[in-house]
Amino acid sequence: MKKLLFILSCFFISYTGFSQTNAATDNRPEFVKDPTIPNFTIYKAPDSTIYTNHDLKKNKPTLLMIFSPECGHCQNETSELTKYIDHFKNVQIVMVTWLPYTEMMAFYHNFKIAQYPEITMGWDKKDFFLPYYHVQMYPDLVAYDRHGKYVNSFSGVIKLEDVVKALNQ
């Protein structure tokens, strides 16, 4: 009986060892594998109307900014962005947060986002953006060209000159 258990154990151990493959696993984030603007739905400030990727203007570069209203870097980046908005006149900017709508609206009013027609701010109620873009630090900016193809991403402390260069490639 012990010999039979030993033989069966050896068989199962060797079977599981041979069942492993050497196939390469593609660990790249989804937004890099499929470099087009994904399908998304957000609730737009100030009236919580639904806004999707289908509402984006055609033939215009897109800058997605995933942010936290309480993040100091996000606040600084938004100040810089609005200060140098002329560099983004031909870009549609979509600012997205997963935090509560009320916090987003306080940020929206504090930074007077309504004054900037290039910027659309929305609430990501379904928490789509964080896992899709593998956000590790805020703000997280993702640039797409005028054809909706991924160009580059930026995280944390960001130089707006680098973002402008990426969008104008």
- What count of domains describes the coordinates? 1
Number of strands: 7
Mean pLDDT: 88
What's the CATH H-level superfamily name? Glutaredoxin
- Give the H and E element order: HHEEEHEHEHEEH
Architecture, according to CATH? 3-Layer(aba) Sandwich
Distance between the termini: 72 Å
Q: What's the helical proportion of residues?
A: 25-40%
CATH class: Alpha Beta
User: What is the beta-strand fraction?
Assistant: 15-25%
Rg value: 22 Å
Structure classification:
alpha/beta
Name the features.
169 residues, 6 helices, alpha/beta, Glutaredoxin, seven-stranded mixed sheet
Description:
With 169 residues, the protein is α/β, with parallel strands linked by helices. The chain has a single domain (29-167), classed as 3-Layer(aba) Sandwich (Glutaredoxin). The chain contains six helices and seven strands; from the N terminus they run H-H-E-E-E-H-E-H-E-H-E-E-H. It has a seven-stranded mixed beta sheet with strand order 2-1-5-4-3-6-7, with helices on one face. Helix 3 (72-83) links the parallel strand 3 (62-66) and strand 4 (92-97).
Can you lay out the helices and strands and say which pair or pack?
Layout: H1 2-18, H2 30-33, E1 41-44, E2 49-52, E3 62-66, H3 72-83, E4 92-97, H4 101-110, E5 119-123, H5 129-132, E6 140-144, E7 150-155, H6 160-167
Parallel strand pairs: 3-4, 4-5
Antiparallel strand pairs: 1-2, 1-5, 3-6, 6-7
